[in-house]
Amino acid sequence: SLRGQTDDMALRRRCEEAIASLEFSNPTPAPASSPLLEGEWRLVYASEDPTRCSPFFWALRQRMKGFSDPNPFSRAFFGGDDLLENTLAFTDAVPIKTVGLATQRISKGELVNQVVVGVFPTGESNMTTTSRYEPDPSDPCALAVTVEKTQVLGASLAASFLDQISFPSGDFLSECAQVKMQITYLDDRLRIVCDAARPSARFVFCRTD
After folding, report:
1. What is the pTM of this model?
2. What radius of gyration do the chain's Cα atoms show?
3. What is the reported pLDDT for 159?
4. Residue 70 confidence (pLDDT)
5. What does the pLDDT look like over 19-36, one tens digit per residue?
């Protein structure tokens, strides 16, 4: 599945319209405290690169906000001066990178986000971010998610030097480690979320358990 990663703008527009229609009829009034939230979920649609479903990137955007790209060539090529966004745009365009299965496991205050990323010739690795979460007391449709650590797990033989590397994301991100996950739709099969600081980007998950 392309998960929305297509240059067919008409198809993307139809997907976004379908998502908006679902959100308008959200059957769960307080999804942040609903038992439907917990379980195993697989990403089926993303309105930007699928790796961005990870709260790590949401927090990283907060941490890097205000850092300007010093390179005039990348500023001109990508049409902006935000250092992180230009860097992400570059890595997204690398033809030797592939993004495989993306999942989230939500249970008892812990959210584990895993994305399989492959880079030729080193092979595939599971980029895993572990966060804790709790309902946002000011918004029944949001979770306060705090990023704690990011690991490279299950690396292929060519990338085995990366296997089991653990990066203390929370320490690096400091006060930016907490992000707000807006839950715009939830039922027993589907969950739609976005970074509250970036509401234009939607991520649609399908329950797998």
Report:
1. 0.83
2. 17
3. 44
4. 87
5. 999 999 999 999 999 999
As beta bridge partners, residue 144 has: 134, 180
d(CA 43, CA 49): 11
pLDDT over 70 (residue 161): no
The angle subtended at Cα 37 by Cα 31 and Cα 38, nearest 5°, is 155
Residue type, 32: A
What does the pLDDT read at residue 162? 46
Amino acid, single-letter form, for residue 170: G
Contact 185, 207 (CB under 8 A): no
E strands of 47-168, at which residues? Answer: 97-107, 110-119, 123-135, 142-153, 165-167
Select from 6, 14, 96, 11 the least CA-distant residue to 48. 6
Q: Which helix (H) or strand (E) segment is 185 a member of?
A: strand 178-186
Q: How far is CA 62 from its chain centroid?
A: 14
